[in-house]
Amino acid sequence: MHQQGRPRVVIVGAGFGGLWAAAALRTAPVEVELIDRHNYHTFFPLLYQVAAAELAPGDIAHPVRKIIRRQHNASFTLAAVTGIDPTSKTVFTDAGDRPYDYLVLAVGSTTRYFGVAGAAEHSYPLRTLEHAIKLRNRILGAVESAEQLGGTAAKANLTFVIVGGGPTGVEFAGALQELLNGPLRRDHPRLDLGDARVIIVETGDRILSIYPKRLSRYAGRRLRRMGVELRLGTTVASVDADGVQLAAGERLESTTVVWTAGVGGPGALAEWGIATDQAGRAAVLPELNLDGQPDVYVVGDSSQPGGLAAPMVAQNATQQGTLAAKNIVRAIEGRPLEPYRYRDLGNMAVIGRNAAVVHLGGRIAVKGYLAWVMWLSLHLAKLVGFRNRIAAVLSWSGDYLFRDRVARLIMSSPDDSQSN
Amino acid sequence: MHQQGRPRVVIVGAGFGGLWAAAALRTAPVEVELIDRHNYHTFFPLLYQVAAAELAPGDIAHPVRKIIRRQHNASFTLAAVTGIDPTSKTVFTDAGDRPYDYLVLAVGSTTRYFGVAGAAEHSYPLRTLEHAIKLRNRILGAVESAEQLGGTAAKANLTFVIVGGGPTGVEFAGALQELLNGPLRRDHPRLDLGDARVIIVETGDRILSIYPKRLSRYAGRRLRRMGVELRLGTTVASVDADGVQLAAGERLESTTVVWTAGVGGPGALAEWGIATDQAGRAAVLPELNLDGQPDVYVVGDSSQPGGLAAPMVAQNATQQGTLAAKNIVRAIEGRPLEPYRYRDLGNMAVIGRNAAVVHLGGRIAVKGYLAWVMWLSLHLAKLVGFRNRIAAVLSWSGDYLFRDRVARLIMSSPDDSQSN
Fold first, then answer.
1. In chain A, what's the furthest Cα-to-Cα distance?
2. Among residues A174, A233, A193, which one has the least CA distance to residue A351?
C-alpha cells in the first residue's frame, strides 16, 4: 500500500493489456490496483462465437478477482474512471479518487463509423460482451420474426449484412452461416432458410487483407462455398433501419447490419487530456509512456507507439502490457527504459467447420483442416480458466458432432424484462 | 394445421405446465401451437442457484424449439399474449391473432407483496431468470461496494434479508451463505466477510412449513450452524431503500432484500376476463377447464382447481399439463373428462453442502447427506438437455471440490452498457 512506501501502480482496464501488465508486476516491489468497470475479463478473440450462439457469454468471461487472487501485491476495484489529474497524480473514479505513482491505461478500443450516415444508429457493433449478447438476441429474433411475418419482411429479416472483411467480419460470417444452415434450419422446419443471406461488404479488393493473398483467396472460396456472398471493393454509403445502401448503387434490405469495419482508440483518452492520433489512439513514446508524463503508460488497442505499426490484436496488447510493467520496474530502479518492439507470433482466423487460415511469423501460411486444428488448440489453451475451457470444449464438441448450437437463448436483459 | 381440419390446440406458456401439455399431445390428432414470450424454457427449481452465482443462466435455460423439434404436430411462436376472445375463440398476440379450438393457459405466477409498504419497489423477487440475473448482479455489486465504502455503509451492503422461509428462501439462504463464506471471501481478501449477515424473516413459527416438523428443525439447525440468522414469527412491516422494518420492532439495515414470501396467479388472467380466486389463480373446474368455457384449460401455478390443494410446484404443473392434454383428447373423442388429482411425489430442499431435506409421498422423511445425494440425482436427471446437465455437473463439481463458484459475473444488460 501507499502508506507502506511502495510505489502505487494503478492499471485501468482488465483486458489483455491490463491483465498482462498486472501479472508482469507480480514480484515487483509495488502495490498494484487494477480498475475496471466490469468484474470480468472478456476473451475477445471468441466474441463472435457468442454472437453466433456457439458459446455462452460466461464461457468467455472470467472474474477478474479470481484471476488476480494469488497475486498478493494486487487488488481490484470495480469502478468507471471519470478523469485523470497528472499534476496531483490522481485517477478519478465513480468509486472515489485513486493516487498513483505509475499509471497504465489499457482502456481498449471503440467502434469507428467513418462518418457513414446512420451507421452508428442502425448497425450492431461487435466489440464487447454486451454487443455480442445483443447481436445474438437480434439474430435469433430476426429468424423468429421471419417465420411470423413471411413475404418481403421475412427476406429482410433473413438478410445479414456484415460490414468489414477483416478477421472479425470473416469469422462471424462463417459462424453465422453455419448457425443458419444447421441449428436454426432444424429449429424452424416451417421456414425456408434457403432464403437466408449472409453478405460481407469490404472496401478493399480482398478479405483478410493482413494475410497473404493466397490465404485470402482460400478464405473467399470457402465462404462462397458455404453460401456467404462477398461484395468487394465497395463502400457503404449509408445505413438505415431497413438496410444498407452501397456506394456502388446496390441496395441491401436487411434488419441486421453488423459493423466490424472500423476500430479506434476510445474517446475517453482525449477527454482525459491525452494526445491522440487521428484514430483516437494515444500517441505514446516508443517506451509506451507519454511525452511529458513519463509515469503514464498507454498500452494495447488504445496505444499507438510513435512510428510503429501496432495492430489492434490480443498479442500486441499482452506484449505492450508486459513491457509497460517492465519499464515501470526499470524506472523505479533508475535503469533506462526499453522501446517497444512488436513480435508477430502469427495470426489465425477460422472460417467454418474444418476450415481456417494461419499465418505464422510473417512466413508460414497454413490453411484448411490443419489450420483449423491449430486454431482450436491455441484458443483452448488461451481461454482463461479451466472451467471456461471445459465449457468451450463441450459447446464446440456438440457443435461439431451434432451440428447444433447450445447457446441460442434470447436472454432479455434484467431491466427490460416483461415479467414482474 | 387448421386448414387440414385437425383441431388447433394453442398452449400459452413454455414452463412445466405448457411443455408437458404439448408433450402429452404428441400422438394426438391435433395441431399444437406453443406460444411464449421467451424462446427458452427455464428450469425454475434451480433459479436460486443462478442468483447465488452457482450456475450460469444458460445452464438452466433451454431453447423451446429444440425441446419440441421432434414433435411433428407442434410449432412454436415467440410472442406475448395480449388478450383472449372466447366468442371467436382467438388468442391475440403481438405477433398476430391465433384461432384455437382448445386453449391451454400455463402462464405461471407472479410475486405477491400483500400490501407491504415499499416491498414491490425495494425488494428483489426471485421467480424468473431475469430476476435471478439481476439479484446475482446485486449481490456481487453489494460486496464490491462494501469493499469500497467501508464502515456502516459496508455493513448494510453485507446484510442480506430474505423474506420468506419456504423452500426458495431456505435454499437461496444456504447457497448465498456458502457464496459469501467461500468464493467471495477468497475474492475479497481485504474485506472482512465475517461482517456479512444472511437473515431469513418468516411469518410462521418455523421454516419449510410444508415439511414435517422434524425436517424443519433440522433445516433450521443446519442454517444456523452455517451462520444464517432466523427471525421466526415475525412479519415485515415495510421495506425501503435502506432496509427492512420488522413488525416486532427490529430494524435491519440492508441494501439487498429478497422477497420470496408470496406467489400468486399472474395478473394477466383477470385482464383476459378469466375468473380468479383471491390469490389471482384461475378458478377452474376439477377437470382443469373453465366453467362456461369448457375448451379453455388453465394449468400449473396459474390454476386453482375448485376445492383442491394444488401446490405451486413443478410436479403440480407437469401433472396438470398432462391431464389437460388428455382431457382435450377425451373431449375430441366425445369421452367424459377426468378430474385432477394431485399425486405428491415428494418434496426436497437443499440447505447447503451435504445437507438437504427430502419428504416422500407424505410419509418418508430423509435428511442430511443422503437427502442431498437424492436431491442432486433427481435434479440432474430432470434438468432439460444433455449439455445443461454436463454444465451443471461441472459447476457443482467445481463448487464442491474447490468451494468455488464459476458464474460470478456482473453481466450488465445489453441496453444499459457503458461501452460503445
1. 71
2. A174
pLDDT digits (tens, 9 = 90+) for A39-55: 999 999 999 999 999 88
DSSP class of A183: I
Give first-to-last CA distance, chain A, whole Å. 46
Contact of B275 with B288, CB cutoff 8 Å? no
Q: A40 and B79 in contact by Cβ < 8 A?
A: no
Q: Quick one: DSSP state of residue A180?
A: I
Query: Which CATH number is associated with domain A119-263+346-409?
Result: 3.50.50.100
Report which residue type is found at B162: I
As a whole number of angstroms, the distance between CA A35 and CA A280 comes to 21
CATH code for residues A2-37+79-109+265-332? 3.50.50.60
Q: Are A134 and B394 an interchain contact pair (Cβ–Cβ within 8 Å)? A: no
CB contact at 8 A, A186 and A221: no
Query: DSSP letters along B286-334, please?
Result: TTSEETTEEEEEE-GGGEEETT----SSHHHHHHHHHHHHHHHHHHHTT
Which residues of chain A have a CB within 8 Å of the CB of B13?
none
Chain A closest-CA separation from residue B408 CA (Å): 7
Q: Cβ neighbours of residue B152 under 8 Å, at least 6 residues apart?
A: B253
Contacts of A56 in chain B (CB under 8 A): 56, 58
Which of 350-409 (B) contact A at CB < 8 A? 387, 390-391, 394-395, 398, 404, 406-409
Domains B2-37+79-109+265-332 and B119-263+346-409 in one fold: yes
Q: What is the rounded CA–CA span in Å between residue B315 and residue B343?
A: 8
Which residues in chain A touch residue B416, judged by CB atoms under 8 angstroms apart?
Answer: 413, 415
Q: What does the pLDDT read at residue A412?
A: 53
Average pLDDT over residues B384-398: 67
Nearest to B61 by CA among B79, B41, B83: B41
Choose the closest CB to B414 out of A134, A144, A391: A134
Across the interface, whether the CB atoms of B186 and A69 are under 8 A apart is answered: yes
Contact state of B409 with A95 under an 8 Å Cβ cutoff: no
Domain parsing of chain A, residue ranges: 2-37+79-109+265-332, 119-263+346-409
Residues B323-363: pLDDT tens digits? 999 999 999 999 999 999 998 888 899 998 889 999 987 78
For chain B, positions 246-275, list CB contacts with chain A under 8 A.
none
CA of B247, closest CA in chain A: separation in Å?
A: 26
**Which run of H or of E encompasses A318?**
helix A314-332
Question: Could you say which of A37, A148, A409 has the minimum Cβ distance to residue B61?
Answer: A409
Which CA distances in Å does B328 have to B22, B178, B310? 11, 46, 20
**Which residues on neighbouring strands pair with residue B34, listed in sequence order?**
B11, B76
Give the position of cell 482502456: A107
DSSP A241-256: TTEEEETTS-EEE-SE
Provide the shortest C-alpha distance from residue B353 to chain A (in Å).
20
- For A118-162, give the secondary structure using H, E and C: CHHHHCEECCCHHHHHHHHHHHHHHHHHHHHHCHHHHHHHCEEEE
Residues 6+ apart with CB under 8 A from B173: B162, B198, B200, B223, B228
What interhelical angle do B16-24 and B314-332 show, nearest 10? 30
ipTM: 0.83
Distance from CA of A94 to the nearest CA of B (A): 11
Among B31, B33, B54, B171, the one annotated catalytic: B171
Strands B355-360 and B347-352: antiparallel
pLDDT of amino acid B372: 85
* Catalytic residue check, A271: no
Coil/strand/helix, residue B408: coil
- Taking the complete model, does pTM exceed 0.80, yes or no? yes
